[in-house]
From TrEMBL:
<dbReference type="Pfam" id="PF00996">
    <property type="entry name" value="GDI"/>
</dbReference>
<dbReference type="GO" id="GO:0016192">
    <property type="term" value="P:vesicle-mediated transport"/>
</dbReference>
<dbReference type="GO" id="GO:0005634">
    <property type="term" value="C:nucleus"/>
</dbReference>
<feature type="region of interest" description="Disordered">
    <location>
        <begin position="111"/>
        <end position="138"/>
    </location>
</feature>
<protein>
    <recommendedName>
        <fullName>Rab proteins geranylgeranyltransferase component A</fullName>
    </recommendedName>
</protein>
<dbReference type="InterPro" id="IPR036188">
    <property type="entry name" value="FAD/NAD-bd_sf"/>
</dbReference>
<dbReference type="GO" id="GO:0005096">
    <property type="term" value="F:GTPase activator activity"/>
</dbReference>
<dbReference type="GO" id="GO:0005829">
    <property type="term" value="C:cytosol"/>
</dbReference>
<dbReference type="GO" id="GO:0007264">
    <property type="term" value="P:small GTPase-mediated signal transduction"/>
</dbReference>
<dbReference type="InterPro" id="IPR018203">
    <property type="entry name" value="GDP_dissociation_inhibitor"/>
</dbReference>
<keyword id="KW-0963">Cytoplasm</keyword>
<comment type="similarity">
    <text>Belongs to the Rab GDI family.</text>
</comment>
<dbReference type="GO" id="GO:0005968">
    <property type="term" value="C:Rab-protein geranylgeranyltransferase complex"/>
</dbReference>
<dbReference type="GO" id="GO:0005092">
    <property type="term" value="F:GDP-dissociation inhibitor activity"/>
</dbReference>
<dbReference type="GO" id="GO:0006886">
    <property type="term" value="P:intracellular protein transport"/>
</dbReference>
<dbReference type="InterPro" id="IPR001738">
    <property type="entry name" value="Rab_escort"/>
</dbReference>
<dbReference type="InterPro" id="IPR017230">
    <property type="entry name" value="Mrs6"/>
</dbReference>
Length: 497
C-alpha cells in the first residue's frame, strides 16, 4: 500500500473527467484543499485520449469478458456509519468490439474485408489488382491523384509500430469559438495549457434519387456562399438574407410572435427557403432535428454565425493531440494551486452517517474525510445513480475508425465535421469528425474518423453511416481498424459546446 495521505480535505474529487477537473480547478483556485483521485493510470476518465496500444488495453479492460468484480474492502461501520460501495466505472461501457481489417504480419499481399464483420482479414490498397502484383509500369500510372493519397498496403504490425503517434478520443469534442467552454478557457487562463485547430470544412450528405448520395462542402462564410456551386443565385440571396436576420433576430421579437410555439422547420418555410436551403440550414448550420422549436433553432443559428471568423473560416475548434488534453489542462491549474493528484488509487466506498450525509471515502483502507465530495457519474453507487433502471438504459453509440484516406479528397489535409441526417435508412442523426496527422491524432497518411449518435448498439446504429462513407470501392476510404462501443448517458458525453 502507498504511503498514507493527509486525512482531511475541503473537497475530494473522484475521476478525472472534464467536469470533475473543472470543479477541482475552480475549488483549488478559491483556496480549497483539494484531493483528486482516479483509479485509472491515466487522466481523463471517459474523456481520455489513448495511443493505439493504450486503446487496445482499454478495450481488453472494458470488454464484457474482462469485467470482473473488484475486491471488496471490508470495514466495520462505527457510530451508526454505513459504508456504501462505489460502482465499477467499467459498468458504463457495453458492446465493446475492436476489429482489424489487416493481416497480422507485414506482407505486401492484401484482401479486402467487409467492414461490418468482426473477423480479422487484410486490407487492399486502392488500385491494387488482387490476382497479380503491380509491376513498375502500372505503378507509374498510379503516381497521380492516388499518390497524393499516399496509397500503400498496411499490416497490423505496420500500424502498431506507429502506436505512439495516435491520440484516439473516447469522447471527441468540438468547441464553438464563442461557446461557454472557450470563454471559460480564456477567462481562467487554462487556454495556455492547450492548443487548438479550427475545423477547416463542414460537409453535408445530399441523397440522390437512386438512393445513393454525395458529400458536399457547406458554405459557411459570405464569400463561400457566393462562390458555392451547390446553390442557385436566387438561393444565395435568400440564404444571405436569412443569415442576416439570424444575426439580429432578438432585436425584432415581433417577427417571431407567430412562431413562438411552432417548429423551426415551419419558420424556415415561412421565410421562403427552398428544400435545398432548409437541408443546409438544419443539418449543417443549426444542426438540429426537425422537431426542434423555432427559438432553439434560431439560438443555434446565432451561435454558429457569431463564432464564425473568430479563429478561422468555420465556428469550431478541435483540441490538438486529442480532447483528453482538456481535462489535463484544468488539472494543471488545480495543481498550481496546491491540489493533490493520485492516479491508480481505487476508492472502495463512501462513508455515510446516520443522517445520510457523506463524511468522506474509504481508499486503500484509509479514511479520507471531506466537506464536499464530487464524483464522476460512473463512481456513484448504484443505489443513488439508477444505473440498471429503465430510465438509465439510454446510451450513446460510438465508433472509431482508422482509414487510409479522407472521406472526401482534397488538395490538402482537412479537419472535417459532417452530420448525417436522420433519414434515408439512418435511424439517428450521426455526428462525424475526421482528423488527420496535422492535429496530432494519427500518423501521416492515415485518418481517424469518429462517429457519435444516440443508440443502444453501436455497430448496428452506425451501420448506414459506415456503408455510405467506407468500402472497397477505389474512391472510398478503406478501414484498417474499427472500434464500436456504447456508453451510458450518465457520462454526459457532449460533442459540441
Amino acid at each position: 500500500m502507498e504511503a498514507e495521505l493527509p486525512t482531511d480535505y475541503d473537497v475530494i474529487v473522484l475521476g478525472t473527467g472534464l467536469v470533475e477537473c473543472i470543479v477541482a480547478a475552480a475549488s483549488a483556485r478559491v483556496g480549497k484543499k483539494v484531493l483528486h483521485i482516479d483509479k485509472n493510470d491515466y487522466y481523463g476518465g471517459q474523456w481520455a485520449s489513448f495511443t493505439l496500444k493504450g486503446l487496445e488495453q482499454w478495450v481488453e479492460e472494458n470488454s464484457s469478458a474482462a469485467q470482473q468484480e473488484t475486491a471488496k474492502e471490508e470495514q466495520e461501520a462505527k457510530g451508526g456509519e454505513m459504508l456504501v460501495r462505489t460502482s465499477d466505472p467499467r459498468q458504463v461501457y457495453s458492446k465493446v468490439k475492436l476489429g482489424w481489417h489487416l493481416q497480422n504480419a507485414k506482407t505486401p499481399e492484401a484482401t479486402p474485408i467487409d467492414i461490418n464483420s468482426d473477423s480479422v482479414g487484410s486490407q487492399r490498397c486502392m488500385g491494387e489488382d488482387e490476382s497479380t502484383d503491380i509491376n513498375k509500369e502500372s505503378q507509374a500510372k498510379l503516381e497521380t491523384k492516388d499518390e497524393a493519397q499516399h496509397c500503400r498496403t498496411w499490416s497490423q504490425d505496420d500500424v502498431r509500430d506507429l502506436s505512439r503517434k495516435f491520440n484516439l478520443d473516447l469522447a471527441p469534442k468540438l468547441l464553438y469559438s464563442r461557446g461557454s467552454l472557450v470563454e471559460l478557457l480564456i477567462s481562467s487562463n487554462v487556454a495556455r495549457y492547450a492548443e487548438f485547430k479550427c475545423i477547416t470544412r463542414v460537409l453535408t450528405w445530399v441523397a440522390s434519387r437512386e438512393g445513393e448520395g454525395n458529400l458536399l462542402v457547406v458554405p459557411c462564410t459570405r464569400s463561400d456562399v457566393f462562390t458555392a456551386d451547390t446553390i442557385s443565385l436566387i438561393e444565395k440571396r435568400l440564404l444571405m438574407k436569412f443569415l442576416e436576420f439570424c444575426h439580429s433576430y432578438e432585436e425584432n421579437p415581433e417577427q417571431l410572435e407567430e412562431y413562438a410555439d411552432k417548429l423551426f422547420v415551419d419558420f424556415l418555410k415561412s421565410r421562403k427557403l427552398t428544400d435545398n436551403l432548409i437541408h443546409f440550414v438544419m443539418e449543417s448550420i443549426a444542426m438540429v432535428s426537425r422537431e426542434v422549436s423555432c427559438r432553439e433553432g434560431l439560438e443555434r443559428m446565432k451561435l454558429f454565425l457569431t463564432s464564425l471568423g473568430r479563429y478561422g473560416a468555420t465556428p469550431f475548434l478541435f483540441s490538438m493531440y486529442g480532447c483528453g488534453e482538456l481535462p489535463q489542462a484544468f488539472c494543471r491549474l488545480c495543481a498550481v494551486f496546491e491540489g493533490t493528484y493520485i492516479l491508480r488509487r481505487p476508492v472502495s466506498s463512501l462513508i455515510i452517517d446516520s443522517e445520510n450525509k457523506c463524511l468522506g471515502v474509504m481508499s486503500e483502507g484509509q479514511r479520507l474525510h471531506c466537506s464536499h465530495l464530487v464524483m464522476d457519474a460512473s463512481y456513484v453507487p448504484e443505489r443513488y445513480s439508477g444505473i440498471g433502471s429503465s430510465a438509465a438504459q439510454k446510451s450513446i453509440s460510438r465508433g472509431i475508425f482508422i482509414t487510409d484516406r479522407s472521406i472526401l479528397s482534397s488538395d490538402k489535409e482537412q479537419l472535417t465535421l459532417l452530420r448525417l441526417p436522420e433519414k434515408d435508412g439512418n435511424p439517428q442523426p450521426v455526428t462525424i469528425i475526421e482528423v488527420g496527422a496535422g492535429s496530432g491524432i494519427c500518423p501521416k497518411n492515415l485518418y481517424c474518423v469518429h462517429m457519435i449518435c444516440n443508440g443502444s448498439d453501436a455497430q448496428e446504429d452506425l451501420k448506414v453511416a459506415v456503408q455510405r462513407l467506407f468500402g472497397e470501392d477505389e474512391d472510398k476510404p478503406h478501414v484498417l481498424l474499427h472500434l464500436y462501443f456504447n456508453l451510458v448517458r450518465l457520462i454526459y458525453l457532449v460533442v459540441i459546446y
